[in-house]
Specification:
globular, Rossmann fold, single chain, 2 domains, Serine Threonine Protein Phosphatase 5, Tetratricopeptide repeat, 6-stranded mixed sheet, 6 strands, 12 helices, alpha/beta
Amino acid sequence: MSSLATRCIAVLPFVNASPDPDNEYLSDGITDEIIAALANVEGLRVASRTSVFALKGKPQDVRAIGALLGAAWVLEGTVRRSGDRLRITAQLSSADEGRLLWSERYDRQLDDVFAVQDELARTIVSTVSGTSLAHLTEPVARRYTENVRAYGLYLKGRYAWNKRTQDGVSEAIEYFEQAAAEDPRYALAYTGLADSYALQLDYRSVPVAEGFERAKQYARQALALDEGLAEAHASLAWALFVYDWDWEGAARSFQRAIAINPRYATAHQWYAFLLATQGRHEDALV
């Protein structure tokens, strides 16, 4: 196994074990939150969302997954919601020999979802540190809202947005608007709106000029609430890049996003598109 793989973990999409299939937004959302939390741990590499979600619904031996993704550890889990009750199970396995390293079940109230995610991330880092003898920094929890209902609406919005369909984008806008109405200071809800209106370019759901004006408006609204939000800088940069052709302004915003969060993969990806467009292919390789 390569030296890079020895520090890499793959977080597989948590399975929706709820009777209601509509709760899949929650299992996907919790997966995304864990990926994001672990991605900010110095000394640990995390397989990309695109890579792990390509395996969704395709059960494989953890050793095969480790070889495919170049990972030393594989995290699997389930999420079951019943009313306001939440059950999350998780297990961490060694990818080289398929050995179970740790497993746990969390039975909590839905209001405790933030605490469970934080505890999961800390336990995973502690377990990985113990098995690899590597020094890893503690995951730092950052909450963008304390309103669980707003958070749930945001997760529904991202779940719909990730469908990459015209109906999905329209649905996402509705959920992000509801999240912002529930908590008007929830900056991530406005970045969701910015990304949704920008994505509508692919479907012509609204006039292009109107869509990108709204995208920039919502990105700036998010920044007014939280200037230190990498996602908002990246959202603004994307609109400046693909619609305004303000490549200097877009570059500054992408660079700001990366400076705030060097491990925010989306900012690197979108910035690479800008650099490639300028013919700077070597610089675009990250």
